[in-house]
Amino acid sequence: MTGNSAYSYRSDPAVPAFADDHPIIVFDGECIFCSGWVNFVLRHDRQGRFRFITAQSPLGEALYRHYGLDSRNYETNLLIEDGLAHQKFDGTLRMAARLGFPYNLAGVLKIIPPPLRDPLYDLVAKNRYRIAGRRDACFVPQPEHRSRFIA
């Protein structure tokens, strides 16, 4: 992964400026599985900490490219927290931890060795459309959540 220093995207001219004062989840807006995760986070993020960006947006694509990821095949969500990008299993566990009890209990999954965690995540990610399907159009947030989405 490139750009692994805090806030490295701020000095990348290809990444448009954006508000990064909250943790941000960049997700595949066409994936029903990924959109379901975002809806789950929206329901359980009682303090409204997270902001969201679809990977298909110009900013989402720029962030994927910045971190050396394929900007057309979104096989991981990105969590950008304190200017650092976390992806795959680690990113998901960090998101769950921010949701508080009981979701932070997912942290026990860190006992799974890293060489096994990411391949497990990759298996689900590569099959996500088969598992849950794909939207014809990108995710559109409910009106009460629109302020939490960054264009």
Biggest sheet strand order reads: 2-1-3-4
- Helix share bin: 25-40%
- The helix-and-strand class reads alpha+beta
Q: What is the β-strand count? A: 4
**End-to-end CA span:** 24 Å
Count of individual domains: 1
**CATH fold-type name:** Glutaredoxin
* Rg over CA atoms: 15 Å
CATH second-level architecture? 3-Layer(aba) Sandwich
Shape: globular
Order of helices and strands: EHEHEEHHH
Largest sheet: 4 strands, mixed
The CATH class name reads Alpha Beta
Low-confidence stretches: none
* Overall average residue pLDDT: 88
- What portion of the residues fall into strands of 2 or more residues? 5-15%
Count of DSSP-assigned helices:
5
